[in-house]
Write a structure and sequence with these properties.
Blueprint: H1 7-16, E1 36-39, E2 54-57, H2 59-65, E3 70-72, E4 79-81, H3 90-93, E5 94-97, E6 100-103, H4 106-115, H5 120-131
Antiparallel strand pairs: 1-2, 3-4, 5-6
């Protein structure tokens, strides 16, 4: 059963993220749709509806992530967990280069893969935002 996120908690998550998707770093004002509050660990996997398990997410990142917790990287036999916005520092796992998000760790690579962060359309949008001084 889905747990409702209170308007106060939603506002706190949004303000804490400074209105940016906590996965791809796009600002909410640069997209036409309202961002989602994502359960980092989904309810079906035992995650709760509390600040430590909620992250602001653009709809593309949220839809691509779904309830996934990790993935296997090419040729790998070990499940690699996804980036956790409350426990991990973005700068430790990723860097940005002219709109492309570059992995610095396996966690970064796994997250880029599952969330399709470097889809060509997404890179183009981020490059335009970089040129406008709006990204990251």
């Amino acid at each position: 059963m889905r747990q409702a996120i209170s308007s106060q908690l939603r506002a706190f998550v949004t303000e804490n993220a400074q209105y940016r998707c906590e996965y791809c770093c796009i600002h909410q004002s640069d997209l036409e749709y309202t961002f989602h509050v994502d359960h980092i660990i989904s309810l079906k996997h035992g995650g709760g509806t509390d600040f430590e398990n909620l992250a602001l997410s653009c709809s593309v990142c949220n839809q691509n992530k779904g309830t996934d917790l990790g993935t296997y990287l090419s040729g790998g036999e070990q499940l690699i967990r996804l980036f956790h916005p409350r426990r991990d520092k973005w700068e430790k796992h990723f860097e940005q280069d002219n709109g492309e998000i570059i992995p610095l760790t396996d966690i970064g690579a796994a997250t880029i893969k599952v969330l399709d962060l470097n889809n060509p359309d997404r890179i183009i949008l981020r490059r335009l935002l970089v040129q406008a001084g709006r990204y990251p």
